[in-house]
Amino acid sequence: PPAVRGLAAFARRAGAHAEPGANVVAVPSDRGWLTLHASLPDASGGRVAVVVEAAASRLSALLRLEVCGASEREREVATMLARGMGTTEIAQALVVSPHTVADHVKSLFDKLGVSSRQELVARVFLEEYLPEVVDGTPIASSGRFEERLSAS
What we know:
It is a single chain. This protein is α+β, with helices and mostly antiparallel strands. Helix content is 51%, strand content 16%. A hairpin with a 2-residue loop joins strand 1 and strand 2 (32-39). The longest helix has 15 residues, at 98-112.
């Protein structure tokens, strides 16, 4: 995929001089967000090892918002919505009017293609769980049930 090739090319160019974390990128896929880590297994710079893993939710939420074009203030508002804060609470915390908060929420709705606060929070902060919720896979407080438990 282009993201893997691009990251590998970057890792080759940067070599051992890359800043810590510079050879890590998160990308969307048809199975959710993925984090790609690149490293040079030898000094020749010819071969690059790329590890692909599901993006950690705190990283993927920020990336989802940035990819959709959310401003820094909109990202703050989205985080406060996820915490269950209302318009008045958010306005007080950010020292803005409730109308300004409503404008940010409306802008987030437009950018994310959602129509409610609950849908916004689910889309941004819970997307990696949505397929399981839709499919009816039970989720326990300690994580997902094993398949053998859900089959019974």
